[in-house]
Structure formats: C-alpha cells, structure tokens
Automatic annotation (TrEMBL):
Record InterPro entries: MFS_trans_sf, POT_fam, PTR2_symporter_CS
Membrane-spanning residues: 114-135, 141-160, 167-187, 254-272, 278-299, 337-355, 375-396, 408-428, 461-481, 493-515, 521-543
Membrane topology: Multi-pass membrane protein
Segments for region (Disordered): 1-48
Localization of this protein: Membrane
Protein family membership: Belongs to the major facilitator superfamily. Proton-dependent oligopeptide transporter (POT/PTR) (TC 2.A.17) family.
Name the record gives this protein: Major facilitator superfamily (MFS) profile domain-containing protein
Species whose genome carries this gene: Tuber aestivum (summer truffle)
Biased composition (Acidic residues): 39-48
Amino acid sequence: MEKEVKAGQFHGETLAPVCSRDAPSGSPTKNEHTTESVQSDDDQPTEEELNALPRVSDNIPMGAYLVAFIELTERFAYYGLSAPFQNYIENEKDDPLLPGALGLGQSSATALQYFWQFWCYVTPVLGAIVADQYIGKYNTIMVFAGIYALGLLVLVTTAIPEAIDGGHAFGGLIASILIIGLGTGGIKANVAPLIAEQYRSRGPFIRTLKSGARVIVDPNVTIQRLYMVYYWCINLGSLSGIATVYLELKVGFWSAYLLPFCVFFVGIFTLVVGRKYYVTAVPQGSVILCAFKVWLIALKNKGNMEVAKPSYQVANGRRYKTPWPEEFVDELRRSLVACRVFVFYPIYWVCYGQMISNFVSQAGTMETHGIPNDVILNVGALTIIIFIPIMERVVYPALRTIGIKFKPITRITWGFFFASGAMAYAAGCQKMIYGAGPCYDNPRGCLNGAVPNRVHVAVQAPSYALIGISEIFASITGLEYAYTKAPTNMKSFIMSLFLLTNAVGSALGIAVSPTSVHPKLVWTFSGLSIATAVAGIAFWVLFRRYNDTEEEMNAAGREKQQEALRSVAGEMEEGGAV
C-alpha cells in the first residue's frame, strides 16, 4: 500500500551540519509544496522479482518540470548569444560575404570561443560552494541570475552599431563574457542537481499497472529519465541560435543579443512564481571543508580513506580530529569514483567545442545559398531533441527487456566513439573543401574573399548529428553519474567538478587553436578524432569494472535519503498528517 505525504505538510526540516559527530550525512530538505511517495514493506521486491520483472521509471514531479523550464530559458540565452560569437569576433564589419564586427580572424575567434567556454565551466565551482555551504541552491540561482542579466545588458549595449564604430565592442565583449560566465556558473552548478533533487525515492518497489502487469519502479531508471528530460529542455532552448543568427544577418548583432536578454527574464519569473513547488536541500555549513580534510587525511595515508573514519581514530589513538559521521567517509569514497570517471572528459569537450568555433568558420568557406553560415550548428540540437525520446521511450526499454543493461560506463564509452566519428567526418569535409575551387586550400583567400569554395554547406550536417548523438551518451550520462555518486549534501560541488572538465577541455582547445588556420584544418580534425577514439578505449579499459557495482553504489547513496524520509513520514503519521 502506498502512503502519500500531503503537499506542504512539512517545512524547513533541518539537520545538524555534517561535521557534527551527532549529525547524519543525510539530505535535509525544505519541502514547501511537494508530493512524496512512501512504499510499505509489501511493495519491496524479492531478489527473484528484481531479476525477473521489467524496470520502469517513476512519475516525474511538477517541480522537476519547472526546474527544467528554468534551464531551458537559461540555455536559450546562453546558446542564443553564443551562436553569433564566431562571426562577431572573426569577421570585419564590412566583410563582403558574412556578418562581422571585430575582425580578429579564425584562430583568435576560436581561442576566444574556447575561453568563453572555459570561464563558463570554471565558475560552477564557486556557485557550488556558495550553494552547498552558505545559501542553498535556490537562493544561489537567484543571485547569479541577476549577475547573468547584467552581463547580457552589457553585451547588448556594446553591440549596437555606434558602439562598434566607436571601438567599444571588444571591451564590451570581454566584460560581458566575464559577467555572464560568472552568472551561468552559479546557475549551472545548481540547476542540474536541483532537478534530480525533486524526486524523493525510497528505492525499488513493485507497481501493478492497469493491464495487471507487475513492474519494478527503479530509481536509477527514474534519474536517467530525469536527466533525459533536462537535456531535452537544454537543447530545445539551444534552438534560439536559429533566431539569433538570422537576426545577426538581417538586423544586426545587437538584436541577436537582445532576444536572449528578454527571454532570460521569463526564466527568472518562473523561478520566483514556482518557488512553492521546489524541494531544496538546506546548506550544510562546512561540509566541503570537511570533505577536503577527509581527502587530505587519505592522501597522507597512501589513499586509505578508512583512516579518516572516527572509529578508526578511536581505535588508533586519535591522530586526527574527525568531526564527521562514519558514513560521510563512505560517501566521499563513492564520489571519488565519479571524479576518476571524469578524467577523460576534457578530450571529449575539445571535440564538442568545435561546433561553435571551427565548424562555424568551416561553413563560412562553403556555399550557404542565402542561409546564415552559423545556423547549421542547430542540427546538433535537433538531433538530440529527436533522439532523446526515441532512446528514452524505445531503445533503452527494449534493451532492458532483452536483458541488456546499458550501464553508464558503456554509454559514456559510446559517446566518445561517436564524437571521434564526428571529427573524422569533419576532416573529410575539410578535405573536400580544399579540393574545390576557386580558392582550394586557402578558402576565401582569393577574389577579395567574396566567393566561397564550391561545396554545399549541407555536407556539414552529419558532423553535428554525430556530436548530438554523442551528447546523449556522454554528456547526459555524465550529469547522471555526478548526481548519483555525490554525497547528498555535496551534489552541487561534485556536479561542478564534472562541469569543470569542460573548462579543462576548453583550455586544451585554446592550446590547439593556433592550428585553426588553412591549410592545417584537416590535420586538426583528424588529430582530434584519433585522440578521442584512444581516450574512449582507455576509458573503457580502466573503468568498465564500475558497471558491475553501479546498482550497489547507487543504493548506498539513497540510503541516507531514505532514512530521512522514513523519519519525517513516521513523525507525521504519529501526528495524523499522513
């Protein structure tokens, strides 16, 4: 029998900070308007049922959809302003073929694009610390949204024709990159864990469908579905690039940046109005500092994290102060698994960064037949929007039905291979461009730059499609892995470490950006393809063993959340609230 905790029945349930020996390291939550499902023991599947019954996702709560919509509007702003950046930076304002403003060339434009990504994915660490230690995820998102809006205003005002003519565009661009990057970092680190936080699970349970069939409602499948929804919304928002590149071409860069500025406020409005629907974790004070102390103790003892447990210290003379509960060390050990898995991601993100940099420049050397050269990058987002429902509703359930457990390490490995394929195809595309006139291996280097090489821009589409498919496997699974392996009160921080791999990848992109010149680009794309394939093989060899312990690690991560929920539900039942 399912018991339901009524909406709005408990508020501000706060536990002591994790560094207190008397405190559990569970998930203190503030639930202001949510519905919790609490299963009785009769619903728990036996070992035989766990192996025999099909697994399905639970229902997704309203709060999760609201958080996903907030991310949609933020990504609308982010990708809407990012799409015109390459042209804005690379081309002259009087370019005969393409829109432009600063005229810094392809290599410099690519380096700045990678710096933009680098900064946007370094700042989540700051946003995570602010949220996990001080003011919580919701308040952090609100504060950094205000910073984000300020950066958008700077970008719009310095992109008007008078500002460009007056030489203010470059300074405005750098200032807006720094301000918006800070804003998006604070939002990005907290929205991703916040959406999964809306789902409060007590573990696998049996549900009888209307057809009479019995299935197991699996929290792992539910979290996977949540991040599918989340990523689908991200890419729906990223289609803003279609509108902004046409505004860039037909009206001007200022209008292309004004649209994201306006839509961003829809997200802020949703964030405020939907406040009562969110489940939010209460910040736990010095938890991150305690985590670093645990890791430091382990480092001093040849990686042995058992030394950091209070029981070990009691038995061995208290060499270190250990003001945290036993299970906190076990949670941190699980989080280190995630951190190890993230090590190879920077190579993947270098490939991903090609979409908004060198691919856009490549399109500018091809025949576009009147469409913006930077509009085709939206093929990647459209691929994701189409294939996420197919994967979530058809492919993954079919694989589970026939007994194939397409676990996270396997999915990530496939993501690397698809990204490698995208780079290999881009190399072939570039070779085709160099083989076509009129300028051959120096595209737009003759006839005053007014004529592109005779290759249709649609040839590029498979590169973007392959990157899009790779994101479904690598990027979505990385978000899922970061959430499920993180200690309950460090979700934002571990998520920010995953996002930090994108920053490292962007730094690598800056390092290789000097090769983004003709006629070297075939080798640039080929090198990235080989490096990503090798990284994918190494990733599989080193980490495939984690597939075997995936369910065990996730179950351990849910245990404290289940204890907290049982405690609250028990208190409410005694008081007649359930």
